[in-house]
Amino acid sequence: MAVGDVTQAQTDGQPAGPAVSATAPLDTRERRQLDVIRRFGTVGALLLAAGSLGAGAAPVNNPVWGLPVFGLFSRMTTVSLAIAFAGVFMIVLAWLGLGRLSLPGRARMVSLPQMARTLVMWTAPLVLTVPMFSKDVYSYLAQSEIAARGLDPYTVGPADALGYDDVLTKNVPTMWRETPSPYGPLFLVIGRGITWLTGDHVVMGVAFHRLLALLGFAMIVWALPRLARRFGINPVSALWLGAGNPLVLFHLVVGVHNEALAIGLMLVGIELGLRKMPRVGPGGPYPPRQPGELLWYGIGAVVITLGAVVKIPAALALGFLGVMIARRWGGRWKHLFVTAAALLVIFLGVVALTSLGSGLGFGWASTLNTANMIKSWMAPMTALGFGAGGLGIILGLGNHIDAAITVSRMVGTLLGPLLAAKLLLDSFRWRLRPMIGLGAAMAAVLVLGATVQPWYLLWAAIPLASAAGNTRFRTAATAISAAFAVALPPTGNTFDGRTYQLPYAYLAAAIVVAVALFVVRRHIPTRPRRKAPAPVETPA
User: Transmembrane region positions (predicted)?
Assistant: First the structure.
């Protein structure tokens, strides 16, 4: 975090930040640029939707296979992959171009309605895609069916509960067919309702889960600009970096991940919890209790906890909401302890009601580390274990890769929560904004965890987008988001035995996108130049 952010946090510690400076609307030339950017991204979304017919994570019994015209895509996998990659590149480039018109501090920038319309244009075609980048949605369907049959999804996996020949089990990736569910009871209750509506119809089940993801996406879009205004951040810039992020579009909308619902509930809970909170600084004054203030704190805590009983990382937001409440009452340790106790009671109460009311019990607490089965190079601690084990082999010490990974993961499991606790303490001491602390704490816990997936980064990036106005953070977040967005193939497969498809698909997509860029080259917005300082006159 930059020094400027620290200084601002010390004088603006509570959620209601300074007013965002007004900007003028785009001029005629910039509106034309925005139109081209919108269409460029929309064409990319349409290409991604078309490519998904042959390159997406389609179900085993692919209903598209026998359809005229549409079935051709599934017979030309390399071509479909190239089309999908072209769509990915175009969306990312359109997002970067839109960022040029959404830079904080511009004299003229995109308005909030213009940004919202752009998101609608880019999202609409993606709603119709075959699931891409992951096959997790098929696990959702199978685990929901297990719950619908009255079995315990926290003790049995799809293969044992449904059988290997079941249509839902067949679509679950092999490594997850015998593992229990790692998701909270609220998500499985909703999934059980979807199963009641769709049965074992895979396409309809996916469609309803996508509607659920879109509901979470809508929550993110609703909460982000409101939180940004509280912290003195331009809401357009926050919406661009948070909701318009290609990782959000690809992995929450297209990939149908339940992070959409969990993150959406977390942000909405924070916004509701801050609704009646007055602004105070480190030295006060601390105004008397406002009408309805305690009620909104409770409502916010309940909504955040509902996000946690979808996916547990959302629970971390309760700690930083508690810090903001404790600082509002006076910022002393007694205020922190009283607030923590009250929030803990709410958390345990909501968890107990959802766990027992769902009939699923508390078994989900023992399956939260199911994803640790994956040994992903994207997880720094796992990569460190691979490196240490490989070095041992080179030095002739034997193959101890598994042991090295275990040790490095153990270190990360301890280090992540310690860093989160340090950030929580710094937020309480007015050294940084709590939302910045929340984003950084999420990054510490998840990045230092045993497994890291591209969509995990959204737990950190979206909260940070609402409160971090630092240019260096925006630049780093933009680069990381763009890199991860284009690095992961859209099929959700490993390409074992057919890696030759990737370079051909990448090359073909690059050629198509280069031609498209050449066509629109006159309408690509440039980064605004900083005004040169006026010369200082010196006496003769």
Answer: 40-60, 80-103, 115-134, 211-228, 294-325, 337-365, 377-397, 436-456, 503-520
